[in-house]
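in:
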C-alpha cells in the first residue's frame, strides 16, 4: 500500500533534514498495519538511526508485532492549533495549522535481550536532549526484568512526506503573526480535563 496523500503543494515537503529534525522533536509515532485480517494501530516512540532507519520497542504481548516483518503506515504528529482571524495581521478567515510526517515503512521485529537493551540505552540517551538525566543501568534489576517483556523494532521507510501547514499561503506578515499565535498555545486551560482523565484511567497499567 502506497501513500496517497491529498494536500496543497505549499504545505508538502520531502526535505530530509527538516523531516529528520521534526521526528527528533516529536518522536511518538502511530504505526498502523493489518495482521491476519485485523487492523492494528499502536503508539510507539521511534528514533532515527545513522542509516536513516528508525528504531524503537514494543510490548511483546502486542499482536501487531507478533510477526518477523510487515509493511505499515507510520504517522508522526506534532502540535496543531486553530488560527482565528485575530491571529493574523490583516483580515483573514480562520484556519487550522498543523505539523505531521507520513511514511510507508517495512517493520522488522528483532528478538533478543542484547538488542532490546541497546534500544533502551539509546532511547534514554536521545531523550537527554529533551532534558532527561536518566541513563540505563545494565545491572538494574528493573531493567533486566523488563527485557523479557519487550521486542525490538527496526523500521525502514520507503516513502516519506511531511505536511507542514503554517499559513504559507498568506503574506509574510500574516505568516509571522500566525506562527506567533501557534506558539502561544497554553495547555494549562485543560488541566481539569487532564486531571479527570487521569482519575478515570488510574486503574490502567501500560
Amino acid at each position: 500500500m502506497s501513500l496517497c496523500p491529498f494536500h496543497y503543494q505549499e504545505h508538502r515537503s520531502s526535505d530530509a533534514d527538516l523531516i529528520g529534525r521534526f521526528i527528533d522533536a516529536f518522536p511518538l509515532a502511530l504505526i498502523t498495519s493489518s495482521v491476519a485480517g485485523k487492523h492494528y494501530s499502536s503508539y510507539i516512540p521511534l528514533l532515527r538511526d545513522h542509516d536513516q532507519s528508525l528504531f524503537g520497542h514494543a510490548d511483546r504481548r502486542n499482536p501487531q508485532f507478533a510477526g518477523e516483518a510487515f509493511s505499515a503506515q507510520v504517522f508522526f504528529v506534532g502540535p496543531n492549533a486553530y488560527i482565528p482571524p485575530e491571529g493574523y495581521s490583516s483580515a483573514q478567515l480562520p484556519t487550522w495549522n498543523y505539523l505531521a510526517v507520513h511514511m510507508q515503512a517495512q517493520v522488522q521485529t528483532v528478538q533478543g535481550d542484547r538488542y532490546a537493551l541497546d534500544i533502551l540505552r539509546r532511547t534514554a540517551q536521545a531523550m537527554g536532549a529533551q532534558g532527561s538525566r536518566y541513563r540505563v543501568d545494565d545491572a538494574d534489576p528493573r531493567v533486566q526484568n523488563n527485557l523479557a517483556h519487550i521486542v525490538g523494532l527496526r523500521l525502514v521507510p520507503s516513502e516519506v512526506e511531511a505536511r507542514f501547514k503554517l499559513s504559507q499561503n498568506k503574506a509574510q506578515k500574516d505568516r509571522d503573526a500566525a506562527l506567533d499565535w501557534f506558539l502561544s498555545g497554553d495547555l494549562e486551560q485543560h488541566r481539569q480535563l487532564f486531571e479527570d482523565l487521569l482519575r478515570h484511567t488510574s486503574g490502567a497499567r501500560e
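note: The chain has one domain: 9-200.
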